[in-house]
Amino acid sequence: MSLSVNRREAVGLLGPNGAGKTTTFYMITGLVRPDAGRIMLDGYDVSGLPMYRRARLGVGYLPQEASVFRTLSVSENIMAILEAVEPSPDIRAQRVEELMDDFAIGHLRDTPGLALSGGERRRVEIARALASNPSFILLDEPFAGIDPIAIGEIRSLVAKLTGRGLGVLITDHNVRETLGIIDRAVIIHDGQVLMEGSAEEIVEHRKCGNIIWVRNLRFSHHATGQGRVSWHNFISGYLSHALTRQARA
Q1: Could you tell me the pLDDT band of residue 66, with boundaries at 50, 70 and 90?
Q2: pLDDT at position 100, please?
């Protein structure tokens, strides 16, 4: 499979359970080694680099699971990352304030992570992810476990990220919400890209050519640890229903 993400755009990686979405994320970040193919970042092959090296080069990752440090305050959560990447105490203090202002969490500066709501936690996690100044950020299931109000916040946050010049790659089971915030969707099944294009093009089954960023990756299907769900059921049922509801909204 091959896919690309450009700066200032949000791309949705969609497909049924077991299609390879999370495994693709793991290969991009360096958690899983691909059987073949290359991971390219700004023209450089980073396939052999460990996760921390990719992070330093500009790949950010926000996992589905809550990742805030529960006993640290909001400001301490952000500072913990800055201390690893910025040697100047003055610049660190300035960056903490800027990130809290950017994501409207300044009033939570002294609140411990365990006391945050779902939407607040996501804002803190994204602000913390930006502390390392990534060029691209991967959001794994950003709509999982949050309330309807927080869903609106996530939509605004993704727009803010692309507005800051970042490339955003999103995978989520909430197809309707994901299609509402992305510029382009890539549909995969059994480790292969089947379609690529806008939400309307996907529904109309228009084939789009592959663009290379993750180049010709191949991996064992069993690595996902999930059973197969037919592509036909996904596109004709779940995805089409989500888009029909979106069109009526």
Answers
A1: confident
A2: 94
What radius of gyration, in Å, describes the C-alpha atoms of the chain?
18
How do residues 207-229 score in pLDDT, each as one tens digit? 444 333 444 455 444 444 343 44
Residue with the two structure tokens 């993750």: 214
Orientation of helix 118-130 relative to helix 74-85, angle to 10°? 20
| pTM recorded for the entire structure | 0.77
Which pLDDT belongs to residue 217? 52
Mean pLDDT across 132-152:
81
DSSP secondary structure, the chain, as one string: --B---TT-EEEEE-STTSSHHHHHHHHHTSS--SEEEEEETTEE-TTS-HHHHHHHTEEEE-SS--S-TTSBHHHHHHHHHHHH---HHHHHHHHHHHHHHTT-GGGTT-BGGG--HHHHHHHHHHHHHTT--SEEEEESTTTT--HHHHHHHHHHHHHHHHTT-EEEEE-S-HHHHHTT-SEEEEEETTEEEEEE-HHHHHTT-------SEEEEE--GGGG------HHHIIIIIIHHHHHHHHH-
